Amino acid sequence: MAENLRKLVSNDFLRTMYENLERWQRDYNTNSCDQNLSYCLEFIEQVAKMQGQLFGILTTTAQEGGRYDGVEVIKSRLLPWLEASFTAASLGKPIDSKVPSLQA
Q1: What is the value of pTM for the model shown?
Q2: Domains of the chain: which residue ranges?
Q3: For residue 63, pLDDT beyond 90
């Protein structure tokens, strides 16, 4: 697991993403609607890829912990967050502050 995390940190993904977000913000008002939508979709795709990597790390970490280690953390932090997020998305509502934080 540590190797997967090291790879995620070392690939400069977040730094590059932040720079691209800043550039998009700077150019937003001069971009066409299609350009702004394309930027937004690119970021959604990038975040989805990163989430895939993080869920891979989560899976590996849970497997390393044994049969029941980590279950309470997942039940108390991840599941409520996922439920609130998917419920809001299915109702077409923006996710608000009522969504539980994943931070302890």
Answers
A1: 0.67
A2: 2-69, 70-104
A3: no
